[in-house]
Amino acid sequence: MSNAAMVIRGNAIFDGTGAKPFAGGIAVEGKRIAAVVKGEGIDRYIGPDTRVIDCGDRLVMPGFNDGHTHITQGAFLEDPDFSFCLLESGSREEAIQMAKEYGDSHPDNEWVFGYMMNNLLWKDQTLPTCHDIDRVISDRPVVLQLADMHTVAVNTCAIEKIGITKDTKSPADGVIEKDEKGELTGRFYDGASFAFTDAICSPSDEVYMQIYENLFDKMKKLGITSCSLVAPYGAHDDPLPYFEKMEEKGTLTSRVMMYPNIAEYEKESFAALQKKYADGKLRIRGLKQLIDGVTSVFTAYLLEPYTNDPGTCGATSVDMKEFKKQALEAIKDGVPLRIHTIGDRAVREMLDIFEEGERLYGKQNLRHVQEHLETIHPEDIPRFAKLGICGCMQPWHMLFDLEGGDKGNGLYGDKEAAVGSQRAKHSWPMRELLDAGMVLSLGSDFPVVGLEPMCEIYGAVTRQTFDGKPEGGWYPGQRITMEEALKAYTWGSAYAEGCEQDLGTLAEGMLADIIVLDKNLFEAKPQEILDTKVVTTIMDGQVVYEA
Ligand SMILES: [Zn+2]
C-alpha cells in the first residue's frame, strides 16, 4: 500500500452514483483517485508527505459538470468593459438611453454591445429599430441583444459593418426583418443575429485570453470542473487555440467538451479533430443544432396551437428536410448530436429522427442529447430511455419563467399562459423523465442565466422562484430529489458527454475532480441551498481553489 499525495476525509461523501452520502475518505495520486474507502481505513494511505483535507460534515462530491453552456459568448458578457446588461431597462427608450450612456463612458470600445434586453417586461414590447438607435449613436456600431440570445436590434452602422443590405436574403435559419417598403428595420432573428455577436467578439488575443481566464477563475470558485460548450459559440468559431494556451499556462481549470454546429460538419476533418481532442481537458464530443426557438416569442414548435395565440404552433428554426439529412449523415458516421428542442413537436420530430437513425444504422450507444425539453407530450416520455437519448435540462430557465407569473411577462414569457395547464403539467418534466429511465444532465445555458449550479439544483428540487413561489412548488410532482439533482450535475452530464468512464463519479481510477461545499446539501433547507458555497475545488488531482 503506497502513500497517496492527497487524502480527503469526511462524514458526507456523495460519490455521484445517486447513493446517499457516506462517511469515509478518498485517496488521490497524480491526476486520479487511487481509492475510495467507506467507513474507517483511509488513513492507511496517509504518509509523511500526504496532504490531508479534513472536511467534517461538509459535503464532498465530484466537481460540477455544466451540461450546456455558451462560455465563449458568456466570457464576454461577464466583462463590464466589453458589454453592458439591459435587463433593468423598462422600455425601448430606456434601453436606447442605456446604450448611449454606456457608449459615452466607453469611448474606445469599437462596438457598443448590450445584452439581456427583455422587451416582454415593457409595456410597449416593440423592439427598437435601427433608426431609433441611430438617433443616439450613429458613428459606432450598436448591438442590443435580447435575453433569448436569438434576437438583436442594431443601428445602421452595425448593419453596414456586417455588410448586410436590403437586398440580402434571410438565411435558412433566421430572419432579416424588412418593413413594408423592403427597407431593413435593424432587427435580426435567430441565425441572422449571430453574425453580429460573432463580429463583436473579436478583440486582440491578449484581451481575449484575459476574458477567458477571468471566466475560468469564476468557474473554479463555483466548483465547475467540466462543462459542455455547445454551438452557437457566439464568439469566434475557434476558441481552441486560446484554451490550449491556457492549458499550457495552467489556467484551464475546467474541462471543456465541445460541440460545434452540425451545419459545418465534414466527416474527415471532424474525425481528425475528435481524434486530436479525445481524452484531455479539451474534448470534441459531437455536434449541436437548434431545431426550434423559445416559447416567449412563439418560436418553440408545438403540436397544438399556443394557448395565448391560437393562430400559431410556432415553427422549426431550420429547414427540417435539410437538417434531417445532416443528422442522419452524422449518425451514420457515429457522431453524437445535441439538439435544442423546446416545444413538444420539436421534441417529437427529433425523437423520430433518432429512431430512424437507429433503424438505419443500428443501436450505436452514441450519446445523443436533446436540450432543454421544456414541454413534452406524455406519449414521448418513454421514448428517451428506449432510444438511449439523454436530456439536458435547465431548471433556472423554469424559475425565470415562473417570475413572470400568469402575466406572461417573465424572461421567457409565462409557460403556463403559452401552453395551457394540460401541457404545463408536462413542462420541465424531470420527475417523469427520470422515472421513465432517461439519463438526465443538468446545465445552465450560461449566459442565458448565470453559471451558479446552486440555482439550478434549488430549482430542480423545489420548482419555486428564489423567494419561494408558488408555495409547494410549480407542478411539484415533477420535483426531483437532491441525490438525483447532484447525480445529474455530475455523472449525468459526464454520461451525456460520453465521458463517464473517467468523470462524474468518485471511484478508484476516475480523474480526481472533487469539490468540497461549505455545508451538507442533504441537510440544507431550500434557502440554504442558494447560500451554499464551494470551499475547495480539486481538478486533475490539484487543488485549484480554496476559499
Ligand atoms: Zn443554449
Automatic annotation (TrEMBL):
<dbReference type="InterPro" id="IPR011059">
    <property type="entry name" value="Metal-dep_hydrolase_composite"/>
</dbReference>
<keyword id="KW-0378">Hydrolase</keyword>
<dbReference type="GO" id="GO:0016810">
    <property type="term" value="F:hydrolase activity, acting on carbon-nitrogen (but not peptide) bonds"/>
</dbReference>
<dbReference type="InterPro" id="IPR013108">
    <property type="entry name" value="Amidohydro_3"/>
</dbReference>
<protein>
    <submittedName>
        <fullName>Amidohydrolase</fullName>
    </submittedName>
</protein>
<feature type="domain" description="Amidohydrolase 3">
    <location>
        <begin position="51"/>
        <end position="545"/>
    </location>
</feature>
<dbReference type="Pfam" id="PF07969">
    <property type="entry name" value="Amidohydro_3"/>
</dbReference>
<dbReference type="InterPro" id="IPR033932">
    <property type="entry name" value="YtcJ-like"/>
</dbReference>
<dbReference type="InterPro" id="IPR032466">
    <property type="entry name" value="Metal_Hydrolase"/>
</dbReference>
